[in-house]
């Protein structure tokens, strides 16, 4: 994707997030799209972060287009995340192709559902059902990173207790209808602390967003340490902003060892 388009979409999403207004079209949403503007300037955009000690990977959605060169990505990056679904009726148009092609080049990858929690827990079940259906139709969860729930919106203003119940219900559906027993939560402390509180789902891994010099600038309450740290949205945060085969993109560091990352693709 060309940078001006990506930057423009990020700017629009940031303004809407800062005013509490939801983006009407789920095609505008991706991991980090609702991050407030104040959270996007923790470090100068031209800062260069030393990534030599970390494994790096992008996360993509339809924003990045459906013509990603996954062979180039796999040659220079260690993993990837990709949007599959949102709410209970939106499917990312690029997901099936991204999922299959990234597997074909041997890249560890994970699928995520952009969550829209409500007080009604049937919405958690229907949202999980769509996510499971789409991933299975595209090749399944086998030899993939654990399923991801992107938690960064509270459109209905539900309570922390209701938010926790919704998340637990979604995870319960994953456990019940797939062989995966580990899940990943994507979020940032700017959202988690006021909307979920000091709590973490049992056994879940954390993919935390913080466009800053270190994840320790804004640790997520209730969690000891993230497993992945999303350090840039392709515009804000330290460099590198570009991913070979994609261009400007969201990117994250895996904060563990390479063997641990590989093991997650084999773990139920």
Structure description:
With 268 residues, the chain is an alpha/beta fold. The protein has a single domain, classed as TIM Barrel, CATH 3.20.20. The chain contains seven helices and eleven strands. Helix 5 links the parallel strand 5 and strand 6.
Keywords:
two-stranded antiparallel ribbon, 11 strands, 31% helix, disordered N terminus, alpha/beta, 7 helices, TIM Barrel, globular
Q: Count every helix, treating DSSP H or I runs of 4 or more residues as helices.
A: 7
Number of domains: 1
Question: What average pLDDT do the residues reach?
Answer: 87
Can you tell me the CATH architecture?
A: Alpha-Beta Barrel
Strand order of the largest sheet: 1-2-4-5-6-7-8-11
Number of strands: 11
The proportion of strand residues reads 15-25%
Shape: globular
**Helix/strand structural class:** alpha/beta
Question: Please, what is the CATH homologous superfamily?
Answer: Glycosidases
- Poorly predicted runs are 1-24
Cα-atom radius of gyration: 17 Å
Quaternary state, please?
single chain
Main pleated-sheet profile: 8 strands, mixed, barrel
N→C terminal distance: 34 Å
């Amino acid at each position: 994707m060309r940078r001006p388009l990506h930057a423009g979409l990020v700017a629009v999403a940031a303004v809407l997030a800062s005013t509490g207004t939801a983006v009407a079209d789920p095609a505008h949403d991706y991991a980090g799209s609702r991050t407030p503007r104040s959270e996007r300037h923790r470090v100068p955009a031209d800062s260069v972060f030393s990534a030599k000690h970390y494994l790096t990977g992008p996360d993509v959605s339809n924003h990045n287009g459906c013509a990603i060169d996954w062979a180039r990505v796999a040659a220079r990056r260690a993993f990837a995340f990709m949007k599959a679904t949102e709410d209970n009726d939106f499917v990312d148009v690029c997901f099936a192709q991204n999922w299959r092609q990234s597997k074909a080049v041997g890249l560890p990858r994970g699928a995520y559902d952009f969550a829209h929690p409500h007080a009604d827990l049937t919405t958690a079940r229907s949202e999980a059902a769509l996510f499971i259906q789409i991933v299975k139709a595209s090749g399944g969860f086998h030899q993939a990173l654990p399923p991801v729930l992107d938690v960064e919106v509270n459109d209905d203003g539900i309570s922390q207790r209701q938010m926790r119940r919704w998340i637990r219900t979604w995870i319960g559906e994953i456990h019940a209808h797939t062989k995966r027993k580990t899940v990943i939560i994507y979020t940032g402390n700017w959202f988690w602390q006021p909307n979920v509180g000091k709590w973490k789902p049992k056994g879940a891994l954390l993919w935390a967003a913080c466009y800053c010099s270190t994840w320790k600038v804004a640790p997520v309450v209730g969690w000891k340490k993230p497993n992945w740290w999303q350090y840039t949205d392709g515009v804000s945060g330290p460099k590198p902003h570009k991913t070979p085969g994609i261009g400007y993109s969201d990117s994250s560091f895996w904060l563990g060892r390479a063997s641990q990352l590989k093991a997650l693709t084999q773990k139920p």
